[in-house]
């Protein structure tokens, strides 16, 4: 093209939008056009919300959840069962469990998984704090809600070894057929695990 | 859930991200988590770029293209053919034509299409300026690059009527089989149009 038809300010905005997960180079352009049409109702408030959240949202010193207060709203909630700690890989997984309403206790966010191949060891994750929490009088059970992947299971084994020393009960999520799942579409690994872990009807 | 597990600052950021085209409520959460992990390289620069573009990017007084300079870079480029004006619905269509390198002249962005059903009339669009431009000595041809929809064709007919008075040559994009397109997958309307507009080989 003879000259760049997109000015530098707009191009920089498009390049930054394109870095977000879910947006590619084309959808970033579409998003930029949308935002320019909604400057006052969306674009400016979004700029403010980004800067505001970047400043205020921090990892909770107790559990690693992201919140603007510390300890976070979940840790500060007295109605939650302090004897139950659910260990998750990431804040997104905490949100997923909260959405399901599946856990009424506290959480602990690791911030990742052990991954020898990527050079991620125990010191790179929020693990020391979990092992310290496990020794607290009130904590009775630690639920490992980690993904059923190689790294997830490596992390679960490592944590089980280090947590059982403190006498706490370590459990993990069950594996099996998803609710509403058709057997025909399930992979062999899940079917084999569901068969092995069969329970009386 | 017992308490909201997402704080107000974070929730507002997610709600605003979810308004962008291409992002829904879930992908907005994923985007927010990604941004919080990349505060310095992406999140803060994005906040700045949004505010900066909201302030500086304006519609070009000549053609309606969005740029931080006025007249825009396309209008200010002397190497472009001033005798050819390509009329598009939106800035996104201008970018698409520039990507294709299909047009070496100037542009005119209408900012929408005539739509009697939605109550959009000629005065709601950037049409007066186009009719004035058509009367300029230098302008020889106006290419209507409008969508092949009912509203697009309504707008094209309206513009043709008003532009031909000024003696300028009005053309439109050809319709037919897309490059690389299989006949078997084409709709009947396109096939009929391609047959009707057949050309010597």
From TrEMBL, chains A, B:
Signal peptide: none
InterPro entries: DNA_Rcmb_RecR (IPR000093), Rcmb_RecR (IPR023627), Rcmb_RecR_Znf (IPR015967), TOPRIM_dom (IPR006171), TOPRIM_RecR (IPR034137)
Keywords from the UniProt entry: DNA damage, DNA recombination, DNA repair, Metal-binding, Zinc, Zinc-finger
Keyword set includes Transmembrane helix: no
Domain (Toprim) ranges: 83-178
ZnF (C4-type) intervals: 60-75
Stored SUPFAM superfamilies: Recombination protein RecR
Gene Ontology BP term (one): DNA repair
Keyword DNA damage: yes
One Gene Ontology molecular-function label: zinc ion binding
Task performed by this protein: May play a role in DNA repair. It seems to be involved in an RecBC-independent recombinational process of DNA repair. It may act with RecF and RecO.
Xref: HAMAP family: RecR
Record-stated family: Belongs to the RecR family.
Protein name: Recombination protein RecR
Annotated organism of origin: Hyphococcus flavus
């Amino acid at each position: 093209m003879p000259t760049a038809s997109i000015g530098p300010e707009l191009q920089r905005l498009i390049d930054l939008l394109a870095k977000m997960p879910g947006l590619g180079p084309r959808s970033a352009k579409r998003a930029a056009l949308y935002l320019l049409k909604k400057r006052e109702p969306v674009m400016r408030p979004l700029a403010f919300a980004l800067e505001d959240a970047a400043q205020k949202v921090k990892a909770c010193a107790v559990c690693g959840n992201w919140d603007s207060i510390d300890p976070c709203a979940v840790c500060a909630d007295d109605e939650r069962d302090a004897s139950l700690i659910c260990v998750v890989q990431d804040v997104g997984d905490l949100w997923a469990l909260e959405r399901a309403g599946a856990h009424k206790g506290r959480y602990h966010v690791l911030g990742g998984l052990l991954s020898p191949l990527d050079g991620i060891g125990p010191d790179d994750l929020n693990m020391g704090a979990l092992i310290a929490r496990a020794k607290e009088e009130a904590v009775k059970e630690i639920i490992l809600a980690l993904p059923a992947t190689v790294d997830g299971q490596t992390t679960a084994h490592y944590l089980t070894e280090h947590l059982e020393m403190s006498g706490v009960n370590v459990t993990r999520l069950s594996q099996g057929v998803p609710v509403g799942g058709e057997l025909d579409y399930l992979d062999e690994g899940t079917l084999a695990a569901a068969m092995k872990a069969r329970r009386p009807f």
